[in-house]
Amino acid sequence: MMIKPPRQAKEWSYSSHRESIGKATSSPGIRPNKKTHINCGSSARMAGNVCANVDQIRRQGRWNNTTINGAYLTNLSRELVRSMSGFPT
């Protein structure tokens, strides 16, 4: 029995990525203008997970305080969420 190595991840073009997000969001009725910003929140949260501070995230995304606090970052601290989930802090 031969085991195949895992498939290598390939970088997507912007248009391919946007098209796939459009197909995924059109089915449940999400407004079309949301698909261009769908990754903004996740990238801000991923940056927070690797301990980037809020000022670094704000500069990288060119966000003001209201936008970053209201839309992208959670009000709960990372340490609180980790401890409540049973992870060491």
Describe the overall structure.
It is a single chain. The protein is mainly alpha-helical and 89 residues long. It has a domain at 41-89. Helices cover 54% and strands 0% of the residues. The chain has helices spanning 14-26, 38-49, 54-61, 65-72, 78-84. The protein starts with 13 loop residues before the first helix and ends in a 5-residue tail after the last helix. One of its GO terms (molecular function) is DNA binding. Residues 1-34 are annotated as: Disordered. InterPro entries: Ndc10_dom2_sf (IPR038279).
Biggest beta sheet summary: none
Class per helix and strand makeup: mainly alpha
The residue ranges in which pLDDT falls below 50 over 5 or more consecutive positions are: none
Query: Percent of residues in helical segments?
Result: 40-55%
Give the count of helical stretches. Answer: 5
First-last Cα distance: 43 Å
GO molecular function, one term: DNA binding
